[in-house]
Amino acid sequence: MDERTTSTGEQVYVDRSAAERGSKAPFLVAYTDPVGNSRWGYVCTHCESTATAMDTMGRIKCNRCANVKKPEEWDAAHE
Questions:
Q1: What is the pLDDT of residue 56?
Q2: Looking at the domain assignment, is residue 78 inside a domain?
Q3: Tens digit of pLDDT for each residue in 14-56?
Q4: DSSP 13-34
Q5: What total of structural domains would you count in the chain?
Q6: What are the backbone angles phi and psi of residue 73, rounded to the nearest 5°?
Q7: 67: containing domain
Q8: Does residue 76 sit within a domain?
Q9: What does residue 12 show for φ and ψ, rounded to 5 degrees?
Q10: Which of 63, 57, 69, 72 is nearest to 25 (CA)?
């Protein structure tokens, strides 16, 4: 795993083998420990930002470049 420092100074470990498809580029899973026991969040590979967010539907969005992963299953009533 690749070690990285977030914009808030946290150390995270990026797993380049675990990715989620995004609209512009994949999102990589990041962990708080080098073994991968505790998931931290995602890293956007389009702009290399750790400023990402996930909602309750499973949508991932990069707050810097607007790269988005749409939820795999969704209910039109939520739109």
A1: 86
A2: no
A3: 999 999 999 999 999 999 999 999 999 999 999 999 999 999 8
A4: EEEEEEEE--SSSPEEEEESST
A5: 1
A6: -125, 135
A7: 2-71
A8: no
A9: -130, 160
A10: 69
Is 10 a domain residue? Answer: yes
pLDDT at residue 76, rounded to an integer: 59
- Whole-number Å distance between alpha carbons of 73 and 12: 29
Give the C-alpha separation, 31 to 2, whole Å.
10
3-state SS assignment for residue 39: strand
Q: Is residue 21 part of a domain?
A: yes
Token pair recorded at residue 67? 């790269």
Token digits of residue 70: 């749409």
Strand order in the sheet with 39-44: 2-5, 11-20, 27-31, 39-44
Structure tokens at 3: 């070690």
